[in-house]
Amino acid sequence: MIEKYMRIAIEEANKAKDIDEVPIGCVIVKDDTILAKTHNLRESLNSAIAHAEILAIEQACKKLNTWHLYGCDIYITLEPCPMCAGAIMQSRIKNVYFGANNPKGGSYGSNFNLNKIRGLNHYPNVEKHILEEECSNILKEYFKGKRKKLQ
């Protein structure tokens, strides 16, 4: 089941790539029902906070008519940044599944682990490296293409 939803997140990442956004996709699921599926829209919306996770959390909250996303799982192609990890914690998401590590901003082990900071009010379960190679390759190919355009 985990791979099924990560594949949908990968589809979202490809949608981002198709519109020249950094290809990161996200899906939020509760009780085997997709509440939200999104991708990065920072360039399209000219918004620093239009990360896939933030957009998905907003969609899921609207769908459930609450900011409490108890019992929800989030699937992300890239390890969340500090902003997104904070939003995941604040919304009380139960499980975080991500594909590729984020060496420039990862908050669940690549740079630091938000779950290791004591005293916070919620700690999601985190599972890493789900379809890691596919998730990583989408990003590598995207940035390879960007570098070629600059030459």
Task: Provide an overview of this structure.
- 41% of the residues lie in helices and 19% in strands.
- The chain has 151 residues and is α/β, with parallel strands linked by helices.
- It has a five-stranded mixed sheet.
Task: Give a summary of the structure in a few sentences.
With 151 residues, the protein is of the alpha/beta class. It contains five helices and five strands, in the order αββααβαββα.
Write the layout of secondary structure elements.
Blueprint: H1 2-18, E1 25-30, E2 33-39, H2 42-45, H3 52-64, E3 72-78, H4 82-90, E4 95-100, E5 125-127, H5 132-150
Parallel strand pairs: 3-4, 4-5
Antiparallel strand pairs: 1-2, 1-3
Overall mean pLDDT score?
A: 96
The ordered string of helix (H) and strand (E) elements is HEEHHEHEEH
Main sheet specs: 5 strands, mixed
Shape, principal axes of CA atoms: globular
Oligomeric state as shown: single chain
- Please report which band the strand proportion falls in: under 5%, 5-15%, 15-25%, 25-35%, 35-45% or over 45%: 15-25%
Helix content: 40-55%
By DSSP (H or I, 4+ residues per run), the number of helices equals 5
Rounded radius of gyration (Å) = 15 Å
The beta-strand count equals: 5
The N- and C-terminal alpha carbons lie at a distance of: 42 Å
Low-confidence stretches: none
In order across it, which strands form the biggest sheet? 2-1-3-4-5
Overall structural class, as computed from helix and strand content, comes to alpha/beta
Task: Label this structure with key terms.
151 residues; alpha/beta; 19% strand; globular
